[in-house]
Design a protein that fits this description.
This protein is an alpha/beta fold. It is built from 15 helices and 16 strands.
């Protein structure tokens, strides 16, 4: 399984600093190295939540890497139904570099922030009644190193990449299961969304190779779950133009010109092809004030004083601008018209010392917590496509659930369905609606061969990522999939 070289978003090796600066850094790393060892603790109360938490929350660190010089932080929440019988899922958040707490607080975890009654100060917490932890045990991991509260104990260990991150995550999982033998018999799923679409199939592959080699502990892997996944750069990005035409964000004429002048290739554009360049530029202007995560919601970037001059596909950049603006001017009073404002609550809460103490974060290891950092300089994005990994996994006995919010431009559902069809797995159940409360919740199509079953689901009205927009529907989808019940 080869890979295509991909540009790095920062230096791969640390740059030699001035002597005094370097010495200071060495002192810091030496201090945290002394504290490095796998640890775990139960968290019963949290600042901003009244009383004892109504679920079991564990936080901790697990040392990974060849020299065990990477400390990966995690949040583990036991199923609120039956922890002994319900499946276990290791969940990866996107990015690269987004904290696992983002998925916990904004997508599928049992806690979220109280946006409705915020009056300033430390945000308060409320229960998410549509948490996936209602039906599964879930490990939310800050991955790779430098994400969330995860840190390195040496300068060199800060460097990571797609393949290294997947290898470290596999080591993390094995060690976590050794430390939690009561979950060795639970069915295991590997899940994630957005950029984790690159990492999840790699981790699944590591697990299968470990099982074949007889490595312990024996992992009860059943399958994997992906939401709005980054999978293949060309397919994902090239599907954006057809998608925005389907949802009437560009005219028939613009789409016709794009197909004619660009030959159906909207990614690798020849700068000398002036007709193609001009047409794509016109289309990008049409999308400039559209929310790329959910086309029907307000574009929060335009709530800031400085309006961008060109379309920025990296949503972390947009978020960074919003967070910087709101942190300097404080949050507006409710109602908050832009969903992006909600993310600032996590920055306020997670960077509070009382919160970090409650979560048992090691002092001095992370200077500033970030949900999804704008810059992730020590990470190299190596893989432009993981379709070959999925094709290999389609020859295994696994189950897979892939879902898309159908109002997401950044990773359009038509691109995701396109690479799924390219796997060559036969359609078992044709495109049809799925329902919740007597209403259409989206559409699904099932693929199956003698070794593999993949269910592809769209979530009607959802964006990037789906549980953030349609929590009730996605919980129903997840529960039915785990139960092997028709979605």
């Amino acid at each position: 399984m080869g890979f295509t070289a991909r540009k790095s978003f920062g230096p791969r090796m640390c740059i030699i600093a001035a002597c005094m600066g370097l010495l200071a850094m060495i002192v810091v790393f030496a201090g945290v190295a002394a504290a490095s060892s796998s640890s775990q603790s139960i968290v019963e109360t949290l600042p901003g939540y009244p009383g004892k938490l109504p679920f079991k929350l564990e936080t901790g660190y697990i040392s990974v890497g060849d020299m065990e010089d990477v400390e990966l932080f995690y949040y583990f929440i036991e199923s609120q139904r039956d922890p002994t019988a319900d499946p276990l899922m290791l969940w990866f958040t996107g990015g690269p570099g987004c904290s696992g707490f983002s998925a916990l607080a904004y997508e599928i975890g049992p806690l979220t922030f109280n946006y409705t009654h915020y009056t300033g100060g430390l945000p308060s917490l409320v229960i998410n009644k549509y948490a996936w932890t209602e039906v599964a045990n879930i490990i939310f991991i800050d991955q790779p190193v430098e994400a969330g509260f995860s840190y390195a104990t040496t300068l060199e260990a800060r460097n990571s990449s797609d393949t290294k991150a997947a290898k470290d995550a596999y080591t993390f999982l094995r060690k976590w299961l050794i430390n939690h033998p009561q979950f060795l018999g639970n069915e295991l799923y590997i899940g994630g969304d957005s950029y984790s679409g690159i990492i999840v199939p790699l981790v699944v592959t590591h697990i299968l190779e470990g099982l074949e080699a007889g490595l312990t502990p024996k992992i009860a892997l059943q399958g994997y779950i992906l939401g709005n996944p980054v999978t293949d750069d060309y397919t994902d990005q090239n599907s954006r133009i057809p998608y925005v035409h389907r949802v009437n964000l560009i005219s028939d004429e613009y789409y016709r010109d794009a197909k004619e002048y660009c030959g159906g290739n909207y990614v690798d554009i020849n700068e000398n092809n002036t007709e193609c360049v001009t047409t794509i530029s016109t289309i990008m202007d049409c999308l400039l004030q559209i929310n790329l995560c959910q086309i029907l919601e307000p574009q929060c970037a335009f709530a800031t004083p400085k309006k961008p001059e060109k379309l920025e596909w990296d949503m972390r950049v947009q978020e960074a601008e919003i967070v910087t603006h709101l942190q300097s001017n404080d949050l507006p009073p409710p109602p908050l018209k832009c969903r992006g404002y909600h993310y600032v609550f996590s920055y306020k809460w997670m960077n509070d010392k009382t919160v970090q103490d409650a979560l048992n974060v090691r002092p001095g290891t992370v200077e500033n917590w970030s949900r999804c950092p704008r810059s992730f300089p020590y990470y190299t994005q190596e893989l432009s496509s993981v379709v070959s990994y999925h094709r290999n996994l389609s020859a295994t006995g696994l189950r897979a659930l892939v879902y898309s919010g159908d109002h997401d431009i950044s990773r359009p559902w038509i691109g995701t369905l396109g690479w799924i069809k390219s796997l060559g797995v036969a359609v078992f159940d044709q495109w049809r609606a799925w329902y919740l409360d007597g209403q259409i919740a989206g559409y699904q199509v099932k693929f199956m061969n003698d070794h593999f079953r993949l269910t592809y689901v769209t979530v009607k009205g959802a964006g990037h990522t789906a549980p953030e927009y349609k929590p009730k529907q996605t919980l129903a989808m997840f529960d039915r999939f785990l139960a092997r019940y028709p979605i």
